[in-house]
Amino acid sequence: MELQNKLKVSVSGDGLEAYVDLLDPIEESTEADLLSFLEERKVTFGVLHEEIGRIASDDGSVEYPLLIAVGKQPVHGKDGKVIFDKEVNFEIDEHEKASFRDIIAIPSVQEGERIAAIEPPTNGKPGTNVYGEEIAPKPGKPAQLRAGKNTTFKRSDDAFYSSIDGQLSSDERSLQVQPLFEVNGDLDLRTGNLDFVGSIMINGNVPTGFRVFAQGDVTIYGMVEGATITAGGSVHISEGIAGLGKAVIEAGQDIRVGYINQATVEAGQDLFVEYSILHSDCVAHRSVYCQRGHIIGGTISAGVHIEAKDIGNRMNTPTGLYLGVNKKVEEKRSKYNLLLKAKQEDQTKLELIGQKLEEKERTSGELSAKERITKLRQRNSLAAVEKETDELKETLENMNVTIGNLTEARVQVNGKLYGQVHLGFGKYQHQVRSEYRQIYAFLSQGEILLRSIES
Question: What are the tens digits of pLDDT across the range 36-45?
Answer without folding.
Answer: 889 988 999 9
